[in-house]
């Protein structure tokens, strides 16, 4: 069967909620059923066929051809299947995602992978603020799965991260790993200020020394950590630009945030020069 393709055909003035368009919710529906589905648009609703031209019939493989920052909640609570996106989109990509894979060739806005519990999100571009973080009023961010960003990410990556892995080939903004509870964040570009603010547990891996490190992180010296060679396998993916030699070199380890329970760690690969 051919993938189910949604091509944006109109300019949007309000934000559009695409959470009904996920494989598990579309399974068993006919093309006419899908075209008639209502989507929240500001304070009203639009049917799918008011917004998209639709072709194909495979409800387990969705493709969105749209370059619009007002398209929100793509892949929300997704429980399987595949979603591909061509173009930059709005906020909450993969919100509360359980299983499956989302691959986007473009940029995403705030709260990508918020509350994610499983599956994989692959971003061929940049991610906005609060990647893998807790939403306002919630106490836990991402709780499982893997997120890969080939570009840069905004501020507060992994805020209150509970479980899972975030890999960023480029730079990350301020307050990365703030209030982190557990999980792994790997950054292979520069990282901003206030790294690990309020961090409780978990691991942050850096390929470059941070420009600024909080005084509440204790320098534990250089170590050769064999687990990094095992972790490398989890960090690999097709066309990865991560140098494999980094994982066999000594790392400089910092423990903190000692202003909290202080069981988190920041590992600077290659040590501090």
TrEMBL record:
GO BP terms: methanogenesis
Top-level taxon of the source organism: Bacteria
Name this polypeptide is given: Formylmethanofuran dehydrogenase subunit C
Sequence ranges assigned to domain Glutamate synthase alpha subunit C-terminal in this UniProt record: 82-207
InterPro entries (UniProt xref): Formylmethanofuran_DH_suC, Glu_synth_asu_C, Glu_synth_asu_C_sf
A molecular function (GO) term: transition metal ion binding
Organism: Beggiatoa alba B18LD
Entries under Pfam families matching the protein: GXGXG
């Amino acid at each position: 069967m051919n993938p189910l393709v949604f091509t944006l055909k109109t300019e949007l003035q309000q934000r559009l909620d695409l959470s009904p368009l996920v494989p598990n919710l579309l399974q068993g529906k006919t093309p006419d059923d899908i075209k008639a589905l209502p989507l929240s648009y500001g304070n009203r609703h639009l049917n799918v066929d008011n917004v998209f031209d639709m072709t194909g019939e495979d409800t387990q493989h969705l493709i969105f051809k749209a370059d619009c920052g007002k398209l929100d909640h793509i892949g929300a609570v997704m429980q399987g299947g595949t979603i591909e996106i061509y173009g930059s989109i709005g906020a909450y990509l993969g919100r509360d995602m359980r299983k499956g894979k989302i691959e986007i060739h473009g940029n995403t806005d705030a709260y990508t992978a918020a509350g994610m519990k499983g599956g994989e999100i692959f971003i061929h571009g940049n991610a906005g603020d609060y990647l893998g973080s807790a939403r306002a009023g919630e106490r836990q961010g991402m709780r499982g799965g893997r997120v890969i960003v080939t570009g840069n990410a905004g501020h507060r990556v992994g805020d209150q991260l509970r479980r899972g892995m975030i890999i960023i080939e480029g730079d990350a903004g301020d307050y990365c790993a703030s209030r982190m509870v557990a999980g792994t964040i790997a950054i292979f570009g520069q990282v901003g200020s206030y790294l690990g603010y309020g961090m409780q547990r978990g691991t942050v891996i850096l390929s470059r020394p941070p420009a600024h490190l909080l005084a509440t992180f204790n320098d534990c010296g250089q170590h050769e950590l064999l687990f990094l060679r095992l972790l490398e396998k989890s960090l690999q993916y097709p066309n990865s630009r991560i140098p494999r030699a980094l994982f066999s070199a000594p790392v400089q380890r910092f423990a903190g945030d000692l202003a909290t329970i202080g069981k988190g760690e920041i590992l600077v690969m290659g040590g501090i020069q």
